Amino acid sequence: MTRTSALNTGLDDFLAWAETERKAALPVRTSDALLTLLALHGADRRAGVPEPTPELLRRVLVEDLPLLLWANPDELAAVPDVLTALADRVRAAGRLNAKRHARLLAAVDEAVPECERAMADPRNLTWPRWYASLLRADGVDADDAEAVRAWLAALDAAPHADRPELPAPLHRSDVTASTFASRIRLTEALMAAFAQDIEGPSAAGPLLPATPALAADRPEEALTAELENLAAALTDRWTAAGLCAALSGPYEGLAPGPEALPHVVLADRFLDEHLDYYGDSAAPLPPPAALPAPGEVRALLHAAPLPAALAAGADDVHELAEQCGFPGPATAVWTDGTPQELTELAADILAAVVERIASGSDPDKAPDEEYALDAAHVLYGLYERGGTPESVARKATAHTDLTISPDIEDAPVAVPESAPPAYSTPPLDALSALLGLPELTEADRAQLGEPARELAAVVDELAETGCVFRTGDTYGLTPLGNAVVRHVLAVGHVAAPDDETVASWDAAVTVAAVQYWPPGAAAAALTTWTTARGATDEAWDALLRAVSTAKAEDFHRTLTGALFDRLDRAAVPDGPLRTALADPVTGAHAHRLLHSRGEPADLDLVPPTARAALLLDDLDARWAADMRAFVAASEDRDPEPVPTALLDAFDEAATTWPGGAESLVPALTEVAPASAVRVLEDLRDRHPDGRVADLAAHAVKAAKATTGRTAARRRGAGR
Question: Pick from 653, 669, 649, 670: which is nearest to 661 by CA?
């Protein structure tokens, strides 16, 4: 690149000073980027160069440089040299005393390692940085715009399978997002600098070039366009000549913008769904039941009705075809795309159909708006089940006053061999068994009819993409659908592991994840995990220890009963369970599971703390049942009869607990003070025996005091 800076940063004088005073030839590209970015963020330039501060240094090194600069190892290694020389230059100009100079050098030492990590982080990769690295690896002169364009032309003409793949785990949408963010960041900084040049110019003169195109009286739209052009020019200086114009012009297919990736919108919907379910994008979903091999994706996509019609140019889907890139970039992917590109294309088509359903733009297939807006929810819900099939009628109960058990909701549904294309609600006896409601009536079945038909209409429209199937009342994701939804989830940065990833987890991560998964999917994952370790007793022991550790660390949020149920479904052997009897936290759960299998075990082996932990879980469940009964009653009266599940369970437990209620109440308090509070408060407020109520009242105070002290210690440790 040339030695002349695009902005008035004093670059040439600074480089000359460094050569003369420090006998150091600093890299031009790195120096230009650092000085320019410091100046754009408002660094004072009265010393003839931008004067860094620790805050500005960190911002430029950690936030800006990793998005905007391509640097070879030598150029990156020179970053501290450039900044040290800059600090020395400012001090030589009398603008920095010894104390501030030392503080600045310390800030460089602190921020440079973070900069190096950020430069290597794939999440900061942009299209200009990616292609700048590739063309240099091929020996192309990055300062020769014609050579850069010729290289891009050859890459664009190459078969898709021969093009370099992005570093894992990046998708094109990730690089597009980073590129868009970097452009916005740089353009906004230039706008701020332009305003500063007009309103309060530096004594060193305007930062931006004084050209007619950047005159103050120019229309705002024209000014914005010119500043965007300047941002592109700076990006080219810091990556490769002519790159931005080429990637936004004839070779835009190599660097798609957000508008070229419509499935990103669906990814945002999936992220919203996941946060509603789990509250954390990092909370993993269960692996899908079946994923196609990479070589199968093309055939599956080509066989799907709607994608085939789009590729063929059918008249009745012209608008949708244009939205998905037919004819155009999608055509090349359809015929020559890699499995990853074909999956992205399938995701674009699926996203377009979800949007069409939501808008009701297809008059022949416009379902009820309530369901029309929930097509993304339908897809997410199927994947969240681990890809196991679902029942239309069962799902539709959510839009009626019928209430079914959560265990029934998670149960898989058999797929019939065949069924008529038109949807009809299952017969009463089959429907009753499906919903787990033996008292179901024909009136209940009739109530389900309309919402079930509306949901089936949504499912049938999704099925045209090849991602969903429906056979009679049963619907689910196809193998292609599993792959596509998993890809879209990954684009939304939702954790969606496959079996291989789950098998690589440690026991603690596995236990934390599977407690929230449907029992069948969780059991399959546990089997995968233990099988990968030889299905030995040691592997099962590790899982059981992880359950105990999780329960001890977070009693309330660790669903011990659910975890033991899932371990049972995964066929945990008796040997590890018998070893777990002595566990001070989960021993009683192991004892209960052995008895449920018809394998009696000595209760004396179970520590009292484990018995109290199991009992507190049980009592808390009874408390929740009582609260549901109160809520279900009308606002102006109590339920009849008044629920006493918690009180009855406590009294029954007290009869066999050593020392009775006097010993049981403090045992519950000691095992998990925070989790025991609501149980104790209910005993205090509702237990008819004043002695028990008084014991509970004292225990509530003790539990809250303990919880308060624990919270204070954690806050102190956090400081």
Answer: 653
